[in-house]
Structures are given as structure tokens and as C-alpha cells.
Amino acid sequence: MSQLPAFLTHQNGELHLEGVALSRLAREHGTPLFVYSRAAMLASLAAYQRGLAGRDHLICYAMKANSSLAILQTLVRAGCGLDIVSAGELERALAAGVQPDRIIFSGVGKTRAEMRRAIEVGIGCFNVESRAELDVLDEVARSLGRRAPVSIRVNPNVDAKTHPYISTGLKGNKFGIAHEEVIATYRHAAGCAGLQVVGIDCHIGSQITQAGPYLDAMDRVLDLVTAIEAAGVPIPHIDFGGGLGIDYNGDTPPAADDLWAQLLARLDARGFGQRRIMIEPGRSLVGNAGVCLTEVLYLKPGEQKNFLIVDAAMNDLPRPAMYQAFHRIEPVVPRSGDGMTWDVVGPVCESGDWIGRDRALNVQSGDLLAVLSAGAYCMSMASNYNTRGRAAEVLVDGDQVRLIRQRESVADQLRMEVPLA
Ligand code: LLP
Question: What is the C-alpha separation between 361 and 342, in angstroms, rounded?
């Protein structure tokens, strides 16, 4: 069994996050409940900051991983810029107090309205993913009498060796501009009056657990930078994307500072050590800082399978249903003895609504479970399926607890709807 994530410990026979007993939080705020450790987020960020110390760099947290305002504020105040993918994320980013020029805008489908707003507030960079998008951005910027800062996302055709749904740097993916078209696209961009080329970027996938794919992608991007600059277009910054994995189930991704020691050595060896570096990590900053607390509703032993029905579901924790993803599940107050093997499932009316399969757990109805590694891509992907309100969220800091999102009520959900007369 692998170790518990940092800042999650057993004290007096029960799970604590930092100095706070999880059972107390469940009692006070109800379940399902997301609980995050501020110290864990800052420790993850510190590893990147150590790794890039002394270099001209900007760490733009990919806020799609968890875009709750207090999480953004925590990371922004600790020095992060933000990587956004929609007008909604842009407004959240501004509400969190980030300086607009520390925002980069990623994604294959930016609308004209999104481009306009982002230019008006003065974001730092658009990561453009197609020739068609480049031309629309040029037009929108010119109509505003402005030059939009652009970087072109290149598809380095590198296998990130991760789940196909979260692998993005291969030829068959919808992302980025193909290697062969990159130089012509930069030449074109450099000639557009509404565009200012400020960099190049790539992102090869998510939950990457080896350094190899990063080194391969870096080599290909540096080859391109050399060729683009030889064609007369300077490339001020290089954005190496996000994607570093976390330990869900004994995974052993490199630590961010170790990874960057290797990448910087390669960068230096190739003569790019002085270049401004940008990165877009999401999961690795927040994933293991969060847990989801859920209460066991019913035990349903059966002939073929034993089901443990809990009050969290695929609308709260969509990753198992979407990617067959694994999250560890731990009793908040462990009982002695081995118990039985259970499929942990939610109340949603779908067989795909499972949270963990074949888990050995000794529990009774009313017990609390902690679903681990739930800080990234859980709350930000939560839905109202089955008219379930989205969970509440709390942030723990030492022995301090702060409610950062109220539980969504049915009234909240109905507010947007227009009934027939
Ligand atoms: N930059 C770009 C352009 C991205 O598309 C992503 C993630 C990131 C940065 C951040 O990647 P990270 O460091 O978090 O791996 N919902 C999936 C993950 C989707 C990732 C999408 N792109 C999951 O739950 O596994």
C-alpha cells in the first residue's frame, strides 16, 4: 500500500487533513464534502518554484483542474499566473485578483467574444491552436486597434503514455498545429498587423508519470524554435505545458523539481537556458491536496458483487465513470478487522456510477469514507445530474477551517429555469 498524500495523517485513530479531523468537518458541513489542504497546494507549488528558481519563468496554474475562487486566490497569492480556457475562467481569474498579463488563454475553440474580452483586459498570451483561429484573432485585435500577444501551440507528436482521453500531443489529437505547418504559420502570424508573436507552446497530455515524454517534446520544440528563428521570427518565451502526474495508486511521477532539473539541463545544453519559460500545471498543484468525504448509506451484499452505496456519486466524482480512473478510498475512522470486498457506488441511476471497484473495506452504514486525490478534475467537472446539488468545499489551513463554497441547493438549480405558465 502506498503512502497517504502529504498532510493527510492518522491521529487518534482517525484521518486528519493538516490539523483537522475529517469526521468533524463532515459533521459540521455535511457530505459529500470536498476538503483541501492549503499547505499541500503550497508545497506542490514550491517544488516547481524550487525547480525553476533563478530562471526567467512564469507558472500559470491550469485552473480547469480546480477553479474555485479560494483555490485560485491561494495559488495566485503564492505567485502563480493562470492558464484559462474560456470567458468564464477569465472572469474567475480576474475575480481571484490575478494580474491580467499573467493570464494565458489556451483551447481550440475560442469565440470572437472571448477573444475581444481577453484583449480588452490585457491578457499576457493567446495560445493559438489553428490557422483559422489565428486569422480570427488578428481580425478581432485589429477591430479593437490592438495587437494580440500570440503563441502557437505546436503538436510535437510525442506519446505521453497516458489514458487516450487525456493524451493531447499525438498526430491524431485535435490539439495544436502539426509540426510540418509550424514554420509557415509563424511566418504568417508575424505578418499580421493584429498579432504580436510572443512565444511557442506545447502540451502533450495529462497524468504523465515519466520524464521521457517531456524531454522528447522539449527537443522537438527547441528544433522548431531554431527553425522559426532562422526564418526570421523571434520567439521570446517557450511554454512547455502542464501534465505532470500525481500518485493515485502507487504511481511514481518525478517530483516537479527533479523533472525541471532534467529539463533545464537539456535546455542549457542546447543553448536555450536564458529563454523565458512558461508552464501550465494543473493536477500536480491541487490533485493530492484534496479529498472528498462521503457517508456510507447502505450495504448491499450480493451473490456476485457486494455494493457499498455512498452519498457521493459520478456527478461529484466523474473521473472513474469517464476514464476508469482510480481514487483510493479510506475509512475516516478505521475499524479493526478486514471486512469484505466492495464496489463503492453512488445513488445515480447508471451502472457507470461507481467510485471504486473491488475495495477491501470494513464499514457499516453511517461510516465516513475519504476519497483521496480528489483536488483536481472533480469539483471542476461536477454536474447536477439527477438534480443533485454540487457539494460544499472547505479549505483547511493548520487547524483553521474555512467554508469556500456552500452546498448548492435545489433552489439554486431551479433559479435559471423558466417554467411554462
Ligand atoms: N494546459 C493545457 C493546454 C491543457 O489542456 C491541460 C489539461 C493543462 C495545461 C493541465 O494539465 P495537467 O497539469 O492538469 O495535467 N479531466 C482529465 C484531465 C484533462 C486534462 C485536460 N488538459 C482527468 O480528470 O484526468
Answer: 7
Nearest CA to ligand 1 atom 22: 206
Ligand 1 pocket, residue 151 CB under 6 Å: no
Are 250 and 330 contained in the same domain? no
Q: Which of 236, 266, 281 is the last residue of a domain?
A: 281
Residue 237 in any domain: the answer is: yes
112 CA → ligand 1 middle, Å: 24
Q: At a CB cut-off of 8 Å and minimum separation 6, what does 303 contact?
A: none
Is any atom of ligand 1 closer than 6 Å to the C-beta of 66?
A: no
Look up the pTM and report it. 0.97
User: Any residues with CB less than 8 A from the CB of 420 and at least 6 apart, and which?
Assistant: none
Q: At a CB cut-off of 8 Å and minimum separation 6, what does 215 contact?
A: 262, 263, 266
Same domain membership, residue 350 and residue 320: yes
Nearest-angstrom CA–CA distance, 277 and 237: 6
Closest CA to 129 of 182, 198, 89, 50: 182
Query: Which residues, in sequence order, are CB contacts of 356 under 8 Å at separation 6+?
Result: 320, 326, 327, 328, 329, 343, 344, 371
One domain for residues 245 and 323: no
Task: Show the domain range for 346.
Answer: 8-37+287-414
Q: 62 in ligand 1 pocket by Cβ < 6 Å?
A: yes
Same domain (yes/no): 198, 302: no
17 vs 46: CA distance, rounded Å: 19
- Distance in angstroms (rounded) separating the CA atoms of residues 301 and 42: 42
Closest protein CA for atom 24 of ligand 1: 377
Q: What is the mean pLDDT of each run of 10 residues along the chain (421 residues)?
A: 89 97 98 98 98 98 98 98 98 98 97 98 97 97 98 87 66 81 96 98 95 95 97 98 97 98 98 98 98 98 97 98 97 94 97 97 98 98 98 98 98 96 92
Ligand 1 atom with the shortest distance to the CA of 281:
13
- Residue 110 CA, ligand 1 centroid: distance in Å: 17
Per DSSP, 253 falls in state P
